[in-house]
Amino acid sequence: MRVVSPFSAPDSSFWEGCRVLLTGHTGFKGSWLALWLLELGAQVTGLALPPDTEPNLFAQLGLDWRLDHRVGDIRDADRVASLVNEVRPQVVFHLAAQPLVRRSYAEPTATWATNVMGSIHLLEALRRLEQPCAAVLITTDKVYRNNEWLYGYRENDPLGGHDPYSSSKAAAELAIASWRASFCGTQPHQTPQLRLASARAGNVIGGGDWAADRIVPDAMRALGRGEPIGVRNPAATRPWQHVLEPLGGYLLLAERLTADAALAGAFNFGPQLEANRSVRELVEEALHHWPGSWVDQSDPGAPHEASLLNLVIDKAHHQLGWAPRWNFATTLERTVNWYRRVQQGQATGFECCKADLAAYLTPPSA
C-alpha cells in the first residue's frame, strides 16, 4: 500500500452531493462532524436522540434545519433498518453512543445496549445494502486492555475495558471485526460492496461540549460562574486533542476506504506525544487564557478511571496521510477562547466553530 503525504485535507469533490448517514449527530462530536460535512457539500441525514444537555452544540449550530434531522434510538433495530433502506448511504459515520465513563457505572445495561447492540443493529442494516457503502464506526481509545504503562497502544494490541463504557466499546470493536470478516466479501452470504472500518480516539476537547463529568466543560462552566474548577483526578494523564483532529481522520478514512478495501480495519487517531499531559497541566494551561483557580477534589472512593493512556498513530499517518495539526497549547487556546467568547456574548457558537474550522484547514506552512 502506498504511503501518502501528511497534512491531507478532506477532498470536497468526493463529498459534494455524497449521501451520508451520521448517527449521533446531536452530540458534541456529531455536531462538529455534521457542520464539516455540510461545509463540504454532503447530503447529510442524521439519526440520534434529542440533545441531552442545555445548552447544546446541535442547537447552537442550527443543525435541525440544515440537515435531514431524524430523531430515533439506535437500540431500535427496525428504525435503523428502515432509515438505512430509505437513505441508501454511500458513507456512514456511526457516532451514536452512551459516551460517559461515570454514567456507565450508573447505567451499565443501557450503556451496553446502546454501544454494542446499537452498533450491531446498524451493521445488520448495512449488510442488506445493494450499492457501495463505506462505514466508519467510532469507538474510543479506551477499548484497549489498559496496563497503565508508558507505551502507546497500537491497533493490534489486546482489547479490554475495566468500566462498563470501555468494555462495551471493546465489545463493539469485536462485533465490527466479526461482521467485517463474516459478511464483507464475495461469498454468497456476503455483501461485496460494503466496507467497514473502526476509528479509535479519545479525550477530545473543543468548543461546544456541554456534557457533565468531563473536565473541560466542567471547567468552562466553573469559570463562567467565577468559581474554582473542581478537579477529580489531577495526576491522570490523557492524550488531549482538538475535536477537529479525529474528525479529519474519519473523513479521510471514509474517502480512502471507498477506493481501497484493504483499509477496512481499525485506526487510531490521537495527538503527538507532547499533548499527553496530566489533568493538572490541562487546567493550568486553560487558566492562562481564562484566569481563575482550581481545587483538588480527588476522591479515593470514586469509580475507577484510567490514569495513563496514549495511542500510537503511525498507521493513520502512513496509510491515510493524516497527522495532528494543532499542538497542546493551540488546542487549549482555541478551546478556551471558544467558551469564553460564547459565554461572554462576544460571538455565537456557530461563528466560533466556523472560525476554528477555517483555522484548522489553513495549511501549516501558510
Structure description:
The longest helix is centred in the middle third of the chain and has 20 residues, at 164-183. Helix 5 (77-87) runs parallel beside helix 7, helix 11 (279-289) crosses helix 13 and helix 13 (328-343) packs antiparallel against helix 14. A 7-stranded parallel β-sheet has the order 3-2-1-4-5-6-11, sandwiched between helices. Strands 7-10 form a two-stranded parallel ribbon. A two-stranded parallel ribbon has the order 8-13. The chain has a domain at 12-203 and 240-270 and 308-325: 3-Layer(aba) Sandwich (Rossmann fold). It has 366 residues and is α/β, with parallel strands linked by helices. It has 14 helices and 13 strands.
Q: Name the average pLDDT.
A: 93
CATH class placement of the domain at 12-203 and 240-270 and 308-325: Alpha Beta
Outline = globular
Kindly report the name of the CATH homologous superfamily of the domain at 12-203 and 240-270 and 308-325.
NAD(P)-binding Rossmann-like Domain
CATH topological fold name of the domain at 12-203 and 240-270 and 308-325: Rossmann fold
Question: Helicity level, as a percent range?
Answer: 40-55%
Q: How many β-strand runs?
A: 13
Please report the distance between the alpha carbons of the first and last residues: 30 Å
Structural class by helix and strand composition: alpha/beta
How is the main sheet built? 7 strands, parallel
Q: Indicate the proportion of strand residues.
A: 5-15%
**Gyration radius, to the nearest Å?**
19 Å
Number of helices: 14
Contiguous low-pLDDT stretches (5 residues minimum) are 1-5
Across the major sheet, the strand order is: 3-2-1-4-5-6-11
The CATH architecture of the domain at 12-203 and 240-270 and 308-325 can be given as 3-Layer(aba) Sandwich
The H/E string reads HEHEHHEHEHHEHEEHEEEHEEHEHHH
